[in-house]
Design goal:
It is a single chain. By secondary structure, the protein is mainly alpha-helical. It has a single domain, classed as lambda repressor-like DNA-binding domains (434 Repressor (Amino-terminal Domain)). It is built from 7 helices and no strands. Helix 3 crosses helix 5. The longest helix has 18 residues. The termini are far apart.
Length: 109
C-alpha cells in the first residue's frame, strides 16, 4: 500500500502547508513543537531532503524524526535536535534563531 508519509511529495506538501498557515494566521498560534516541526521541514526543503536522508545524515532513527514531524513526540529532547542540526550542518543557535522561535508566546502564563 502506498503511504504519503514516506514520499518527498508529502514533505514538500507539509512545508507548503506550514508556510501557508504562517501567512494566514501569523506566528501567534504557533506552539513550540510546531515551530520545531516547521524549522525541520524548512531545512529539509532547502536541501531537497526526504525524512530518511535527514535521519541518515544525523544518525537519528527515521521513526524518531517522523515522531517529531507528525506530532507523536510532543517534547523532543535537545540532544535529538542537536543531532538533527549536526546532520544539517548548522548550530543549535542557527536552528533556533528564526522568526518561528522569536515570535513564540510564553508557555507559562
Amino acid at each position: 500500500m502506498y503511504s504519503l508519509y514516506s514520499s518527498k511529495y508529502s514533505l514538500r506538501f507539509q512545508v507548503a502547508f506550514y508556510m501557508l498557515v504562517q501567512k494566514a494566521v501569523g506566528m501567534i498560534l504557533m506552539s513550540t513543537i510546531s515551530a520545531v516541526q516547521a524549522r525541520i521541514l524548512r531545512l529539509c526543503n532547502e536541501r531537497d531532503w526526504a525524512i530518511n536522508k535527514l535521519a541518515t545524515e544525523s544518525a537519528v532513527p527515521p521513526s524518531s524524526v517522523k515522531n517529531i514531524l507528525y506530532g507523536k513526540s510532543k517534547d523532543p529532547r535537545l540532544t535529538t535536535i542537536k543531532k538533527l542540526c549536526d546532520g544539517f550542518g548548522i548550530t543549535l543557535g542557527e536552528f533556533f534563531s528564526t522568526p518561528e522561535f522569536d515570535n513564540l508566546e510564553q508557555e507559562i502564563k
